[in-house]
Amino acid sequence: MSRKIxxxxxxxxxxxxxxxxAALRRDPDIEIIGMAADPLEARDLIIKDQPDVxxxxxxxxxxxxxxxxxxxxxxxxxPVVMVSSLTARGAETSxxxxxxxxxxxxxxxxxxxxxxxxxxxxxxxxxxxxxxSGRNSIINSVSNKSFQRRVISPEVIAIGxxxxxxxxxxxxxxxxxxxxxxxxxxxxxxxxxxxxxxTRLNQMCDIQVQESEDGVPLENGHAYxxxxxxxxxHLKKIGGRLFTSxxxxxxxxxxxPSVDELFRSVAHCSGASSVGVILxxxxxxxxxxxxxxxxxxxYTLGQSAASCVVYGMPKAAMEVGAVERMxxxxxxxxxxxxxxxSENGGFV
Length: 348
Prior knowledge:
Structural class: alpha/beta
Number of domains: 2
Oligomer: single chain
Number of helices: 12
Strand content: 15-25%
Shape: elongated
């Protein structure tokens, strides 16, 4: 890189600051330009040093991380990676932080875990540093016509997302009518976080949003989110009916739950009677699975580059020919509604 990524670490724990700094300094592209024990101290550093990225602890004295994040987003937007304790309260607060504009949340390891437990923070910081330029890029709709959609009024919609997905889901699901085909969602998140996400989305939506359980029959007007971190969410068909299935397995495409796993199961069970949507996120999870859906006759959408927090997963899907149409985030809900309407104007 021509210039190092300048980072300020904000954490009330001296040990936490030390671990984060040590992990980030292992990457030669990152420079720690300041550390602060509370938001008031951090404010002065931000004004003086103008960092590219901030890591921000949620629970701190004088002003909590959410209040500080809100001030940052209002006065001088800077990519912020929240560092959150892996508890129910920490998960709920993290979801709120993502909705306020945080780039992503990193679950804080236990104090005895050591520096290696913070290694996953490095790619988040690097992606956050490039997120503003990613939002401004533009890409045209995909013109690959080799696979054509064959049906309307699908029986299931599958959505995959990662970094930026909380914001994206919050822009799509509340705009869908209560009588909509069932939706299955894999969003990369740690355990506990997906339950908080489902609860918050459910409060915003006309459809019913829940963290998925195993063996639940799919119902219209419901969305099922894969539980974070433990099992893959699959679609299964038994006696002509569709069910959720939570299955233990190794990580796929680096993730568990994996978007590829969800999309492949939908391609197998529903084929042309399905819609696949791949949203913002790092990496390429979902690209091959969405291609299988498209080959099976499904209608496939990708979030446009200009509206992504990170244009990684949709780009990978586009490059392998899995995306039939690229759509801005602001138009995805309307695109789904238009496509899913039956000839008589209803959804079922």
